[in-house]
Every structure is written in C-alpha cells, then in structure tokens.
C-alpha cells in the first residue's frame, strides 16, 4: 500500500506541475503531512542521486527525475508482504502437484506461521477467479482451469504495474523471471503493430501493452507445458491473417511454439481488443460481421443519449464504429477480459460531460445486452464520443478577432495572413481596422489584436507586432484561453445563487460509517425535504454511483441520477474537514446535483464548470478552508470564479 501511495503522490505532482503543500497532499491521499515527507524521501531514493520530488518553502513539486521514478521499480518492494504473496501464488500456478509449505517458508526466509497467513491472503485473492486453494497436510495446491490461472497471472501483473503507467518497461518488470525473454517485449510489440497495420488494421496503442502482457503470459505457460486446449466449437472467431502473425512472431521473439488453442485465443484477444478495420474495410469487413442485436442496441442507446444530453452524436459512421467496439466488448465480457485505459482519470477530470455521456450509453447497453462495464472500458466509449463531438463542434470553438493595423502598403494583409496561418484553429479574424484611431469601444469581437497601443485596456486586447512573432502567438493563445475560461465561468456565476439552496449545505462530512451511499442519502434528504426531488431520485443517484464513481477530480464528487426529474435544479453541498474516500479516490467536497427538465440546456454548463473550478488545488484549499458555512462557501466559490 505504501508503494501505491508513493506512486499516487508522484502522479499528482507530475500531473499538476505546480508546488503543493504537505497538508494539501496529505488531504488528497488521506494520510498525515509527516507521511508525505516520508514518501518524498522514499521516492527520491529510487533515482538517487537524482531528484524526483523537489522541496522548498512552497511545499513540493515534481522534479526532473519524476517520470523516471514512477517507472523505477522493481526491487523496491522485494521482501514485502505483497512481493511474498505474489511469489507464493506464482509457485502454486507453476506446480500442479502443489508446494510444500515448510520448504517454501525456508526459501522465502519466513516462519511457517507467516506463510500460513500468506495462504489466507491467497484465498482472498482467488475470490471470483474460479480457482480454489486445497490443503493436504503440508502441501497446498491450486485447483481450476488453465484460463482461470492465466487470469490470475494477469491480475498479479496489473497489481505490480506502476500506477497509471501501463508501459512495456513496467511490463518487463512484472513478468521478470518467466520463461520468456523480457527484453524481447519491445521488439515483439513493434513488429506486431507494424504487421497488423500492413494488414489494414488500426491499432489501439493504449491497449497494446495489455495484449502483449497476455501474449507473454501465454508463451510462458506454454513453455511450462500448460497450453490451452483447442475448442473446435468456437469456430473461426479471429481472422486467419491475425492468427498467423501472432503464431509466427511468438516463435520468432519468444522461442515458443503455440498450439492451436493458444493461437485461437490470442488471435481473438487481439481482434477484439486492440485492432479495428481501417479505410474501406469498415464497410467491407465491419458491417457484414456486426451482430444485428448489438447494432440495434447501440443505435437505440446513442439516440437516447443524443436526446437526453442535446448533443450531436447520432451519426451513422459513429454508430457503426461504436457498434463494432461494443461487439468486441461483449466477447471480452464473457471472459471478464477487460482492457486497461491509462487515460481514464484524465478523461474523467478534464471532460466530465463526455465521460457522463459514456456512462449513460454504458448503462443503456447494460440494460439491453446484459454486461456492466468498468471505468476503463467506459473511458474507451468516452473516447469514441469525444472524437465525434470534436468533429461536430470544431468551428463552434473559434473566437472572433479584429486586427488593428494602420495601413502601410499591404502590411495589414500580410499580418492577417500570418494570424490565419498561426492561429486559424483558435480564432477567426472577422475584421481589419487600418485607421490609427478606430472606434475602440465598438470593436465587438472576442479579441482585438493591435499593432498600436490602445487607449483602453482589457483581457481581450492583445498587443502584437506588425510582423507576427512566436511570442505574439503565445500571447494571443493565452488571451484566448482566458476569454474562453471567463465566458465558461460567467455562465456558472449567473446560476450559483439560484442553484445552491442555503439550507442544503453540510460542513463536516464523514463516510467512515455510512460510505458514499450514506453521504448521498444525507445530502439527498435535504432536497427531498424541500420537495425538489423524491426518494426515487436518491436511489437512482446511488445506482449511478455504482456504475462509475462520480469523483471527477481529486477534490470533488458530483453524485447525481440519470434523468432530469427534479422539480427545479438544485445542488446540495457537503464539505469534509479533511478528505474522505470516494470510490478509488479521495474528495473534500461532495455536490449532489439534481436537474430539472426545464434546465436541460444548463446541465452541461453547470456540470463541466463546477468540475473545472474544483480541478485547481489552490482554489479547492481556499474554498474548503474559508467556507465554514453556506454564505462563506458561496462567497469563496464566487471569488474563485471571478478570479
């Protein structure tokens, strides 16, 4: 657990890139400031004499060796209970006859009593794996099928990976000591991607390391004479071209000859997890192979999501590609062979609305097709949704601009051309003023780019040179970012007092006894008492929480029900004195949101901007520290929004 918390600390600092106090970091991790100082020392020891985490008067921040420290590893946990547990499990997996407990205890340099305690932990690890631990005198052995054993190996490898960094380096460390050559992973992965691309497939690089791990596990098990049996009833699940590539590359790089059962399994794994037909193959391969039930379920789910959230995603090409992804999901769900997504946390905190759309679609698909999805798989659906929305709203993101450049030959024309070339994806020039005395007050565009000093000041006015420089481009981009942020938060500012009831505020949340569901019920009861929602809404908010944690940032959870059935829109707020566990994260503020049908269009604005405000650690610390009651909380929230 200590290693996991150290990695979590380093991940927070690497992501934010700013100074953070020990107290703030302690709240985020649910430990004491003294523990934070201990973690910093341990993390820096990984890359000594380098510096992974810098310390100073302002606290801590990621140092130049931060990323290297996150990947460093392997031996730091040697001899720990987790390392010993994994060693015992691997010994049990490798020996059909079982292990002698006294001999194993001597090899691990622990007492038999300690090993007995480890076996109790092994039984806990086997929960839900279709494997059982049998004991006969001093011999312990595992009972269960080969596929279940490989799933257990996969779980161990995932557990040994660095938090949030599923790369080939950590994969090498997690499978060190197996029969396959760990140094061959990189070359194997490169050749696999190249040959799949040559066959006309798009390769999902985010999931390829996970698949390489499964292939390495298969090669290791076959090398130890534990192959999968061939299943003729399964038919040709995977394409023969993919199967041939995997069989040849495994023999070439790992010196292992796979049997028909393993080739069949791994080809199906690759086909359903990391590749998709590209180009014209979408119509020639995908459409004929789609299950009509899956396509109908996806089409219905996307249509309902488009109407519920008022977004433009009901597109034929999007539906077909998503249906192929869902069909692959259903194959993986049968074996519980989920894919890991290293972007899940960042997608959730940066694009909460897109992630919420994905959760809605996942819920609809579960109701129709019968398989719930973990967060990592929901994140892949969010990437499909985000790609579609990005294509449909690119032009809507452009800010308008006026160029003020007093006429001298064709200087203003050259400047406009330079602005269009360097900034055309961010702003649209709609006017050029060549007078030295333009009507500044009536230049109504989002930005004014001027080569002369303006008699008025403001965030939207940016001084640039007649011949655009890199520094000018950076200043314009920064100003555009400020304008967009101010515009977004202004929309939230206008809704605050209307949406936050004064008598729906709690200071001093505690989930030790009640858990997340207890907090949701506590906040929900205040809105129920006001007639804003009913008990059914609270229960549906709890159901939504079970689908995917609503901890969208490291400080804020936004529980809510799917369906805008509140009599009016309202937000009940709970503030914890420290941080409280919420799903796999810890938060300091919980905002139970209830939206009404009439405020459907405001849903995206309020939802996204509330998450944005609580994504900034300094703002959170200020709001939590000073928001001792509802008026103070609202005042601080407004002050943060107004900057």
Automatic annotation (TrEMBL):
It holds the Pfam family PTS_EIIA_2. PROSITE patterns: PRD_2, PTS_EIIA_TYPE_2. It comes from the Bacteria. Residues 498-643 form the PTS EIIA type-2 domain. Signal peptide: none annotated. Residues 289-395 form the PRD domain. Keywords: Repeat, Sugar transport, Transport. The keyword Transport applies. This is PTS sugar transporter subunit IIA. It comes from Microbacterium invictum.
